[in-house]
């Protein structure tokens, strides 16, 4: 049965690597290869383990009995119930079902990791998978900037109209997605790079940080740049004021690069951003459906109908479009119960990760999760101007790292 546990860990590692390195529309012989298939294998392996192992069944039973002690899981379950109920009144029931099943899959993955990742070695393996893929993603992103290999036409711009020539996506399909993916790992890497005592490991972490930071800059994503600045200042305030000198030096050097300086000037147009119109439509939906919302995922479906009703809020004549704000998305789609459980979930994650950093005796894990605490706050901030919490390539990795933190706590791995 240990072999199945071991394989579950390996499958989750492969899932992280596949999501990060394989583009969404990747096909072999005309067949679309999706990360969801690997996730399904994780679930099937776990079910097989339950069938064959009495120990696994006992562990599951104990885990279910302890749900009341896990505020993250409680809020996830409440939010999923609100999503399920919303299917009944959603205009686009297929989309509502799809998004609900996606979120339920995160709950199942979280629960499996919590119960099955119960050794220091398995935690190390999962964390290493993210660090490894972030390095590969960054290297390819930098290569892509100079060669444009694998870059979609929509990310190559006419410089007479736009402030940048290209915005790299690497293997993450979108510049904003790429920025968010790297920001989730860059602050843990910064903490490891500063405080790691082993010179060889320290060198690897510093190189990884350097590669990640260059790639984040080359996304030319204003959201990612703001997230990077916010995270840097949080590190200064929360942990080490000396980092301020590094930040000031890095900013000074960045401004010397014409492309970065030109893109930075775009921040003055932030309140004229088309996203503001998308947010206004969300607010109109909230006013029309304050209690229940319009149904899970259905902002996207009803966007066109609201543009017809309020033509002044039209954005490039799209008939369907996302809200570009995770909080307004939840409020407009799931109403007051949805937003309450969603915010409760986000607060619980921050609280529990911060609490964990004070209990860990493993210095590697402690530094990693101090950095991830910063990354999580940055990630929440970035969701004000994007739906990043609902992009599978990022969100799956986010939930995996959160679930690992709970596995460490639940299984008392390196806890004081």
TrEMBL record:
It is found in: Membrane. Residues 207-343 form the O-antigen ligase-related domain. GO terms for cellular component: membrane. The chain crosses the membrane at residues 12-31, 37-52, 72-90, 96-115, 127-147, 177-195, 204-221, 233-257, 334-353, 365-384. It is a multi-pass membrane protein. GO terms for molecular function: ligase activity. Pfam families: Wzy_C. The keyword Membrane applies. Signal peptide: none annotated. Coiled coil: none annotated. Keywords: Ligase, Membrane, Transmembrane, Transmembrane helix. PANTHER family: O-ANTIGEN LIGASE, TEICHURONIC ACID BIOSYNTHESIS PROTEIN TUAE. This is O-antigen ligase. It comes from Clostridium homopropionicum DSM 5847.
């Amino acid at each position: 049965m240990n072999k199945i546990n071991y394989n579950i860990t390996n499958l989750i590692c492969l899932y992280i690597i596949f999501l990060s390195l394989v583009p969404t529309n990747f096909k072999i012989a005309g067949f679309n290869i999706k990360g969801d298939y690997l996730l399904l294998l994780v679930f099937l392996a776990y079910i097989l383990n339950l069938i064959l192992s009495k120990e696994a069944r006992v562990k599951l039973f104990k885990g279910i009995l302890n749900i009341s002690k896990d505020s993250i899981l409680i809020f996830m379950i409440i939010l999923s119930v609100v999503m399920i109920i919303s299917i009944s009144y959603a205009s686009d029931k297929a989309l509502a079902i799809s998004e609900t099943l996606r979120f339920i899959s995160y709950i199942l993955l979280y629960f499996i990791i919590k119960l099955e990742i119960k050794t220091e070695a398995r935690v190390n393996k999962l964390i290493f998978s993210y660090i490894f893929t972030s390095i590969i993603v960054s290297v390819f992103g930098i290569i892509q900037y100079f060669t444009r290999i694998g870059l979609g036409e929509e990310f190559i711009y006419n410089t007479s109209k736009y402030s940048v020539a290209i915005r790299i996506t690497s293997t993450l399909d979108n510049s904003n997605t790429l920025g968010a993916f790297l920001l989730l790992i860059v602050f843990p890497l910064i903490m490891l790079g500063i405080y790691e005592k082993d010179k060889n490991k320290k060198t690897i972490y510093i190189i990884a940080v350097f590669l990640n930071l260059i790639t984040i800059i080359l996304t030319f994503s204003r959201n990612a740049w703001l997230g990077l600045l916010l995270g840097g200042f949080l590190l200064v305030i929360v942990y080490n004021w000396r980092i301020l000198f590094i930040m000031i030096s890095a900013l000074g050097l960045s401004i010397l690069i014409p492309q970065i300086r030109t893109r930075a000037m775009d921040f003055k147009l932030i309140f004229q951003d088309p996203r503001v119109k998308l947010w206004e439509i969300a607010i109109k939906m909230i006013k029309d459906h304050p209690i229940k919302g319009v149904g899970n995922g259905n902002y996207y479906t009803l966007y066109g109908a609201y543009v017809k009703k309020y033509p002044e809020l039209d954005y490039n004549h799209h008939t369907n479009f996302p809200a570009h704000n995770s909080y307004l998305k939840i409020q407009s789609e799931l109403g007051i119960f949805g937003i309450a459980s969603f915010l409760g979930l986000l607060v619980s994650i921050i609280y529990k990760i911060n609490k964990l950093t004070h209990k860990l005796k493993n210095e590697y894990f402690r530094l990693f999760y101090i950095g991830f605490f910063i990354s999580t706050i940055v990630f929440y901030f970035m969701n004000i101007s994007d739906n990043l919490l609902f992009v599978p390539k990022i969100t799956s990795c986010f939930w995996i790292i959160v679930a690992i933190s709970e596995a460490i706590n639940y299984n008392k791995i390196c806890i004081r």
